[in-house]
Amino acid sequence: MALIRIGLLGRAHGLKGELILDDCNLTAAELQAISVFTCRRKGGDDRRLDLASVREIHGKFLVGFRGFEQRDRARELTLGELFAEESQLPDPGPGVAYAFQLVGLAVDTEDGRRLGVLESILPTGANRVFVVQGEREWLIPATEQVLRHVDLARGVITVALPPGLEEL
Fold it and tell me: What pTM did the predictor assign?
C-alpha cells in the first residue's frame, strides 16, 4: 500500500476539534472523496483517521475527524503528517496530474534544454509556481502559456519560459 503525503495538520481551530491543514494540493471535494487518512507523528504510531468535515477558510482547509470533535482531543494530532493510500485518490481527470506526481520530474525547455528537477510547487494568489533546481533555481509560473507538456511516463515536464525570465 503506497501512502501519499496529503499535508500537515496544524493547530486546532475553534472549539469543535477542527485543525488547519497546511501544504495540501487537493480540493475539499477530493479530500471528502478520500475520507480515510493515516496520521503520522514524530515518534508515534500511525493512526487511522476518518474525515468528518472539511471546509475552506482564507485559502486553507479546516478539517475535522471522527473521535476528535473537541479541541483538546484534536490537539493530539497537531504537527502530524496526513497521508492517504494512493489507490484512494480520485482520478484527477484527463490531462491533469496531482502535485506529488510532478515533484521530482525533470523540467526541459521546448528546445530540449534541461533546466533541472521540480523540487516543489508553491501556491500563490494568481497561480502555482514551480520551484526547479538545476544549475540555478528557477521560479516558473505554472500557467497554460508556460506548461507545454507533462509526460509522466518519461518523467519530463516541458515548458516555454516567459520572456525575460532567464535574465532574472
Answer: 0.71
CA distance 21 to 142: 23
| Other beta carbons within 10 Å of 130 | 24
Sign, CA dihedral 98-101-103-108, equals negative
Q: How far, in whole angstroms, is CA 27 from its chain's centroid?
A: 10
**Interatomic CA distance for residues 103 and 48, integer angstroms:** 26
Q: CA 146, 141, 31, 5: dihedral to nearest 10 degrees?
A: 110
Average pLDDT, the chain: 91
Rounded CA-CA distance 144/161 in Å is 12
Contact in structure between 159 and 148 (CB atoms under 8 Å): yes
* Shared domain check, 161 and 122: yes
* CATH code (residue 128): 2.30.30.240
Clarify whether residues 19 and 79 are in a common domain.
Answer: yes
Confidence (pLDDT) at 139:
96
Number of independent structural domains in the chain:
2
Query: Which residues are CB-neighbours of 166 under 8 A, at least 6 positions away?
Result: none
Q: Whole domain around residue 15: which residue ranges?
A: 3-88
Residue with cell 509556481: 129
